[in-house]
Amino acid sequence: MSAMPVMPARPPSRRIAPGTVVAARELVAVGGERVPVPDPGGLVHLQFRRFAGCPVCNLHLRSIVRRHAEITAAGVREVVVFHSSAEELRPHVADLPFAVIADPGKRLYAEFGVEVSKRSLLHPRAWRHIVRAVAAALLRRDRTPSLRPEGGRLGLPADFLIDRDGRVLAAKYGEHVYDQWPVEEILRLARAAVSPGTSPAAPAPDPA
């Protein structure tokens, strides 16, 4: 049996594939919690979002919050990375039941090959989600994001499912701002991770 590749420090924008093993690290959440990645207790869903207060990010994260108990019961720990400072993030994420990591220097983004592109907002499949997100933010009276957010507005999302040994079981690099794993896909991947003969890395359905 051949050894799995261990992921070294990576140049920017180099994508990683399922089967790669990420180096162990301990991240610090904006609330001070220490978060091991990989987690010896189970699977980690490491997801990359944009800036503090991003309406489209919030729309997606609210779907995670609504079904967080199901995700946790499936053995998955949610860890969400933003390219904003902890100070800027705290007022926006105080009510989220999972770890939020501040990465204003985009070191994790570079290591995991998460990109920036104008197509994040210009892709036609993103438009209706942007409208929904802004409407939902206005309805909830969410805190307004900065006019000039740290790291800019053109980030693309990315998702990684990592097992307790650090092996990347599945990865998704979004093509637009709302192109990420929905909850059903997270749960499917978690089930596949513990089901012999099932490939967790099967393609995820693209959100409509």
From TrEMBL:
Q: Gene3D superfamilies, from UniProt?
A: Glutaredoxin
Name of one Pfam family that matches? AhpC-TSA_2
Top-level taxonomic group: Bacteria
Q: What is this protein called?
A: Peroxiredoxin
Say which species the protein is native to: Thermomonospora cellulosilytica
